[in-house]
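Example 171, ligand zinc ion.
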Amino acid sequence: MRIVAANLQTMFEVQADILVPMAIPEDALQLHRGQYDAGLVLKHLSGLSFPHHPRILAITDVDLCSPVLTYVFGEAQMGAKSAIVSDFRLKHNADGAPAPSAVYYERIVKVALHEIAHTLSLYHCDTPGCLMQMSPRIDDLDKLSIHFCDRCGFVLHRNMKEFRSKQHSCK
Ligand SMILES: [Zn+2]
Ligand SMILES: [Zn+2]
């Protein structure tokens, strides 16, 4: 969590606080799949009040899925408050071997930055290596750099400016 928070602070130039642990909402459990529906967890999160935190990133170790995807590394509400990352599938490589801790940390940071960028209204991107590329498999995730391409970087910069001015006008 500290590594993710530090990377969020650096990339988005915002303060990232680590909040108290919460239980995963059990109504998001998909009993027949043994996984949690990421969208339902996000819905639960966005119903909670975090007066000092305009964006919330949950980090969980349970396996996440969506109604149409077998699994997801993370999910976010587009241009809205909540995002989630699961490390369930980040700890091992495609061949099942445990990932070295540096690789594991890099993966969780990549997914976190990608999901938070969605909450800042960034869409997926086709530029090879860009953090906003879709990475359905662990090998795809490993191919990404920890950077946004020029176009996504530009959109992010513009959206962050707007985001910051909204935060200030709310105070
Ligand atoms: Zn995405
Ligand atoms: Zn991009």
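Summary: The beta strands are 29-30, 35-37, 56-60, 64-65, 74-76, 82-86.
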